[in-house]
Amino acid sequence: MAIRTYDADVLRHVGKGFLKTPQDTNPVFTGFELECLFTNAHTGNPVSAAETLIKDYGFFKHDGSINIAQSPIHTGAELVTLPCTLRYHKEVIARIFTSTALYRYIFNTLSDKCGMHIHISRDIFSLFQLGKFLIFMNSPKNKPDILHLAGRNEGSYWKLNPSFDIASLIDDPFQHGPGKYAALNASKHTTIEIRIFKAWVKRDFILRNLEFADAAARFVRETPAKLLDFETFISFVRKHGSSYPYLKMWFKATGNIKSKVQEKHLKVFNTKDVLPPKGVT
Questions:
Q1: In the 8-state DSSP scheme, what is residue 3?
Q2: Contact 249, 265 (CB under 8 A)
Q3: Are 232 and 223 in contact (CB under 8 A)?
Q4: What are phi and psi of 157, to 5 degrees?
Q5: What does DSSP assign to residue 216?
Q6: What is the pTM of this model?
Q7: For residue 225, what pLDDT is reported?
Q8: pLDDT under 50 in the chain at which residues?
């Protein structure tokens, strides 16, 4: 199976969509795009082999930002998933990313050019709640924490908008001004897109990022606009820690949540198994 074209629609090609578990009574649906590399060191078709592992969950397509990664020994592609609840994502990711099978075919460099983008269904937000989400993501006082969580600096692929004014949503509810490269891209009609994350083909980081998207979506809907700071957000995550164990572990590991076992938590978020296979650069 070949890598699909950039404009391929995962809902049309894979089907189903908006997947949830029986336990999901108040769902937030997210789908993600993970830019990665295929190693061409194997015989056969690595794309087809990898897609067998993610059947009924997503597919691989071309992406302009990593086309420069094409070479005789590796191929750039983007893993795109169906929209699912956080619990459903976790069930699938626990299966496909815990196994070493997927790592035989895909990996990613530690380049800032490889990113992970998370789409959240737009229809769960009122216009005011969307404005609060944009405030939370773009507030200058939250910038150090956003950058730390992102794992990469601002650049051509995502930018903060520190001058965002919630009143601008009245004239431009899709925020076409900042464009699609905004840290929180609100220019799409059906989803909003978090674009900040560096891509790691590693289960713990993928789940941490998905937990952040789910937690942030719920946080901004119920939190007053004057309390959209990271300290209040971390308190929210701590309160709902059973839903966000990877995000809570990250905050403990990095000192945002005080813990005597900081080193224990930090070891989970290492990058030793996200480096390219030996001989691949």
A1: P
A2: yes
A3: yes
A4: -95, -20
A5: H
A6: 0.87
A7: 95
A8: 68-69, 110, 259-266, 271-281
